[in-house]
Amino acid sequence: MNYDVIPTPRFDSDVEFYIKKRKYRHIRNDIAPILIELEKGNLIGDEISGISAKAGEHTYKVRAANTDMKQGKSNGYRLIYYAIQDDGVIFLLTLYYKKDDNRIPTDEEIVGIIEQYCK
After folding, report:
1. Model pTM?
2. How far apart, in whole angstroms, are the C-alpha atoms of residue 54 and residue 29?
3. 3-class DSSP assignment, residue 58
4. DSSP assignment of 59-92
5. For residue 56, what is the DSSP state?
6. Which of 7, 24, 49, 110 could form an SS bridge with 11, CB 3.0 to 4.6 Å?
7. What angle (nearest 5°) sits at the alpha carbon of residue 17, between those of residues 15 and 21?
8. What is the pLDDT along the chain (119 residues), one digit of tens a residue?
9. How many CB atoms within 10 Å of residue 90?
């Protein structure tokens, strides 16, 4: 089953932040393989256990390498997405660079993004 992958305004804003402010010019290429897998319906990454959702709805965090920093996935980006399996829809919630401690969203912030953009 193919999924519709929809970036939220927060996700788009996060990508633009890293392109403009941090000069990470390859971010779109770095996350492209993840988006391809999500479109195929492969729910990759680790489910975030602290976020409760309805049956068939899950929130995941997946790692991506930051090729601008020449580091692997463990020190790269974290992409958080919300999958509604019955509808075949995935919302890209947010993206952050692991070493940007002040940009790491809390579970409450993730729930707020879901409530704002995915309902």
Report:
1. 0.94
2. 32
3. strand
4. EEEEEE-BTTTTB-GGGSEEEEEEEETTTTEEEE
5. T
6. 7
7. 135
8. 899 999 999 999 999 999 999 999 999 999 999 999 999 999 999 999 888 778 889 999 999 999 998 878 888 999 999 999 999 999 999 999 988 888 899 999 999 999 999 97
9. 24
Residue type, 37: E
Would you call 98 helix, strand, or coil by DSSP?
A: coil
Judge whether 60 and 22 are in contact, CB under 8 Å: no
Token pair of 88 as six digits: 């075949």
d(CA 64, CA 92): 14
Instruction: Quote the pLDDT of residue 1.
Output: 82
33 token code pair? 């393989």
C-alpha angle 31-36-42 in degrees, rounded to nearest 5: 110
Q: Which amino acid is at 55?
A: A
84 Cβ contact partners less than 8 Å away, ≥ 6 residues apart = 56, 57, 90, 91, 118
CB 95 within 8 A of CB 14: yes
What is the reported pLDDT for 19? 96
